[in-house]
Design goal:
The protein is of the alpha+beta class and 156 residues long. Helix content is 33%, strand content 24%. A six-stranded antiparallel beta sheet has the order 1-7-8-4-3-5.
Length: 156
């Protein structure tokens, strides 16, 4: 599993091409040749960029779902809606297809934010709203999600 680090700003051009930062490109260098899968996020109005090997691991789990259960079929359809295989061009740019640009509201200013093994691609304004802690719920969310995890290595 790849472990990506960082949040980077960039700009999409009129054709939807996005130049990856040197730091992010360096982290992705071991998997660049395999390509990526770009999809809509299920929970936010952003895009998710999966290195192909990470996508294949996830799809192996999804493929275990019983397709004779309607909910499973509905989930698979929604989860894979709009999925595209993408690669970097010779200039190191990622072309974001028009339908995915429209879904994420991407016009020019973009934030690429690592999310463990994938990269979220956001319209900059939407990203700022999503991470804004005006409600003060980040601490509560962190406690709820991570508070009961006990690691044997003493790291919490």
């Amino acid at each position: 599993m790849i472990n990506l680090i960082g949040t980077y700003e960039g700009k999409a051009d009129a054709k939807g091409r996005l130049l990856l930062s040197a730091a992010l490109k360096k982290q992705l260098s071991p998997v660049l040749q395999d390509g990526f899968v770009l999809k809509r996020s299920l929970f936010q109005s952003c895009l998710e960029l999966y290195p192909m090997n990470e996508w294949n691991i996830l799809m192996a789990e999804v493929n275990k779902l019983n397709r004779f259960v309607k909910k499973n079929n509905d989930f698979i359809r929604r989860f894979t809606a709009g999925v595209k295989i993408v690669e970097l061009d010779a200039s190191g740019r990622l072309l974001i297809p028009k339908d995915l640009q429209a879904f994420a509201g991407i016009t020019k200013n973009v934030v690429l934010s690592s999310a463990v093994n994938i990269v979220e691609i956001w319209d900059k304004e939407r990203y700022e709203v999503a991470v804004d802690d005006v409600e003060g719920d980040t601490a509560d969310l962190a406690e709820e999600v991570m508070g009961n995890i006990i690691n044997s290595d003493g790291i919490s």
